[in-house]
């Protein structure tokens, strides 16, 4: 089935305890589409500047990402610079240069207007709404991401677009901020009352929790011995999640969403093992298949005989 | 099978965003034995002062805790005063008065010297070693807990006792500190090389992870909408874990330990729903059975069909 992502394509500069990288590929649409591409084709809408290296474009194309919607605009590519300490769960932003991304007005090519699955990456909620306006048939699943910047600065617009989507991907701190509620379970329930019928709370090294109605599914993160660079983990999670759904039966029932969480957690776990997209460059189907299977042994237990006093 | 716990019995004073309590029952042996008592009998060794209210003693007795090893010494009971903010994962200690606990030298009554299961609560590692010296037959499982205070101040003694036990319960921050390694997976593997063949890393609201050889099991915490007081959660986890093992087949194979993690997580989840032991006072077998079963639906997913490109 067809899948469309609209989001940022960036050049990231990173400092982690394990090294430094400059102007490596980043951005929500980049990580999402790369992760999803392991399951099937993806259409991408985004913008880069004249300085965006052709090799990154080639990489996405080779992975089966349809770049008809990737505009090359005059000027420089969106740049983000961040630093992580030993606690890799949180990034410190050192610099943000919007550049051509500041003028980004997503326009869907005609071929992209009837996606079965749609992911609205973390961009201005007004732009997320504009994308939805251009979609000509109701997708099977519309998911979105957002961030603290929009939650505090564009709350009204954010609530508008939230009411139009089926699923929100959001992290721990942001779900608390958006709901105005410290308890994550209560916070997620509040979001469910704002529009989306599913919320996936991403908790970094602790995994992710899916909320749908009264049903809750907790997926751990894969226990990694080496985490090099958490940048893009959330978008890789979403890419694995949506890619899995779009390229199986296409069903979005609760059982399929649980499996999608495991697929998302798996792709996110690979993402963070190297800088930027580097782990995805060498990632094989066999490695993914092996880790997907191993998730079972990480979480399964036999039913407990109830021997209570 | 028989189970023995040696640890603290305390009077806690607590401040949380949800209220204040003074001189309520606390201590590692108290929470452990109460949680374990839902599965079967427990023998307790500890010390209280002359001021320890008879009603707390009666409560433990009514729950089937054998208190022949609970000494009443001249002086005041061990007191701990702590505060939690909205981030209930970490306590701020406001005051510690060791009182009679400062002179505690655990002596096992003759009847208590052949336990099948032994839990060494968080006390001075030298005392934990003294308990092991008094045990006359190798238990099926010896588990211990510890804390940052002993890791930094009594490292040598701690490593000595660690080499004599089968399982270490330890929290996130402490496993990092003990192993001198930030990555939790690597840290746990280092501990496995120090003696215990199993390590259970307790991660508060994120659950617990069992490490045994190369096998890893991740148990989520039960998703609670109300967390009132996290005090005792770790000891209640250990109590549920060990109580489950001691009162089933008595096996300590890997599958049983996975189930024990779920039992531990279940008892810990009840503990934090009220202050001190209050939730355990009204907790029914049916409630425990229901939550044990519901853990299955929280974590289970169908095997993923591998449809990779």
Automatic annotation (TrEMBL), chains A, B:
Lineage, top-rank taxon, reads: Bacteria
Q: Where do the Carbohydrate kinase PfkB domain residues begin and end?
A: 24-276
Q: Which GO terms describe its cellular component?
A: cytosol
Q: Which UniProt keywords apply?
A: Kinase, Transferase
Q: Which InterPro entries match?
A: Carboh/pur_kinase_PfkB_CS, PfkB_dom, Ribokinase-like
GO molecular function (one) = kinase activity
This chain's protein is named Ribokinase
The species this protein belongs to is: Vulgatibacter incomptus
């Amino acid at each position: 089935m067809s899948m469309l992502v609209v989001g940022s394509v960036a050049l990231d500069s990173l400092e982690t305890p394990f090294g430094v990288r400059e102007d490596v590929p980043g951005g929500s649409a980049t990580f999402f589409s790369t992760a999803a591409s392991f399951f099937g084709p993806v259409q991408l809408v985004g913008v880069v500047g004249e300085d965006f290296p052709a090799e990154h474009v080639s990489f996405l194309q080779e992975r089966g990402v349809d770049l008809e919607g990737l505009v090359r605009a005059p000027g420089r590519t969106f740049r983000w610079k961040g630093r992580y300490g030993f606690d890799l769960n949180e990034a410190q932003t050192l610099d943000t240069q919007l550049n051509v991304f500041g003028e980004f007005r997503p326009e869907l090519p005609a071929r992209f207007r009837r996606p079965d699955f749609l992911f609205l990456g973390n961009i201005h909620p007004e732009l997320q709404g504009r994308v939805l306006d251009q979609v000509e048939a109701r997708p099977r699943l519309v998911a979105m991401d957002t961030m603290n910047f929009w939650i505090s600065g564009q709350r009204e617009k954010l609530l508008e677009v939230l009411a139009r989507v089926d699923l929100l991907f959001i992290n721990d701190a942001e779900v608390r901020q958006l709901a105005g509620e410290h308890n994550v379970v209560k916070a997620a329930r509040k979001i469910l009352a704002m529009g989306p019928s599913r919320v996936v709370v991403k908790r970094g090294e602790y995994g992710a929790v899916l909320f749908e109605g009264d049903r809750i599914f907790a997926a751990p993160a894969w226990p990694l011995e080496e985490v090099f660079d958490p940048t893009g983990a959330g978008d890789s999670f979403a890419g694995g999640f949506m890619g899995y759904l779009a390229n199986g039966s296409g069903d979005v029932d609760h059982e399929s969403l649980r499996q999608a969480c495991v697929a998302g957690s798996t792709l996110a776990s690979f993402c963070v093992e190297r800088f930027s997209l580097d782990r995805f460059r060498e990632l094989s189907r066999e490695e993914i298949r092996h880790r997907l299977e191993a998730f079972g042994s990480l979480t399964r237990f036999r039913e407990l005989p109830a021997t209570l006093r």
